[in-house]
Design brief:
By secondary structure, the chain is of the alpha/beta class. The protein has a single domain, classed as Uracil-DNA Glycosylase, subunit E (3-Layer(aba) Sandwich), CATH 3.40.470.10. Helix content is about 35%, strand content about 10%. The protein is built from ten helices and six strands, in the order ααββααβαβααββααα. The chain has a six-stranded mixed beta sheet with strand order 1-3-2-4-6-5. Strand 5 (about 150-155) and strand 6 (about 155-165) form a beta hairpin. Helix 1 packs antiparallel against helix 5 (about 100-120). It is globular, with a radius of gyration of 17 Å. Bound molecules: uracil (URA).
């Protein structure tokens, strides 16, 4: 079991491996690899879709309009970005904010799985269809699944998976915002349940192959357009504000 400091060091190492990634063509059009940001020792992780224009420029996930909404919803449950870790399925911006291609998700998902493996959250909120389908390994869309918590083994550990609408989908649709807000309000009680019961033997579960169903339910316009062995609170390393904006994201977690 890693301490908070070790987790952060391991995440930094992973970030260093990721920041110069050239595994797909998005590396030719991106400005920055948007690795993720927040508390390396977080109980709660959010997984969005892919960076948009603002995120690509700043190297920080969810800094545009959808990010502002995410922060507002967090504030309503008395949390903020430094309490959680925020990442995306895809670490580089798809040009023009198009949907990520299946081969891009296939290539990039290894980074997300490794982030989850290092952070070991007790709960993961998927935001929208892409992350929900990837982490569930199933093509069921977010409109059917939002607000339904389930226990899933991801890597060697069981987590509570809690699919939510993508904040960008809620920006211009009041009824979606209402559902997202209602689902958000349940986060504190779900977190209070602590870690789900863990598999007896650490079993390595293969990363699920996402089914590429049509993205019917996706956001209309992405805004880019008490776990016993966890480090005690006192040892947790809080997220830090963005360090230099000149490339390094090491200050983000
Ligand atoms: N939308 C996402 O899915 N991720 C971001 O980082 C920003 C907008």
């Amino acid at each position: 079991m890693s301490t908070a400091t070790e987790r952060r060091e391991q995440l930094k190492t992973l970030y260093e491996q990721t920041r110069n990634c050239r595994l797909c063509a998005l590396s030719e059009t991106r400005t920055t690899v948007v690795f993720g940001a927040g508390n390396a020792d977080a109980e709660l992780m959010f997984v969005g879709e892919a960076p948009g224009k603002n995120e690509d420029e700043q190297g920080v996930p969810f800094v545009g309009q959808a990010g502002k909404l995410l922060e507002k919803l967090l504030a309503e449950i008395e949390m903020d970005r430094k309490d959680v870790f925020i990442a995306n399925v895809i670490k580089c911006r798809p040009p023009g904010n198009r949907d990520p291609y299946p081969h891009e998700i296939d290539t990039c998902q290894q980074y997300l799985w490794r982030q989850i493996g290092l952070i070991e959250p007790t709960m993961i909120c998927t935001l929208g269809n892409f992350s929900t389908k990837l982490l569930r390994g199933d093509p069921t869309g977010i409109s059917k699944l939002h607000g339904q918590v389930e226990q899933r083994v991801i890597g060697p550990r069981a987590v509570r998976l809690y699919p939510l609408y993508h904040p960008a989908a809620a920006l211009y649709t009041p009824s979606t915002l209402e559902m997202l807000r209602a689902d958000f309000q349940r986060i504190p009680e779900l977190l209070a349940l602590g870690a789900p019961e863990q598999p007896r033997e650490p079993e390595l579960v293969a990363e699920p192959e996402p089914d590429r169903a049509p993205e019917r339910d996706r956001a209309p316009e992405r805004d880019r357009a008490p776990e016993p062995d966890r480090a005690p609170e006192s040892e947790r390393v809080p997220a830090q504000p963005p360090a230099d904006s000149g490339g390094s994201q090491l200050g983000l977690f």
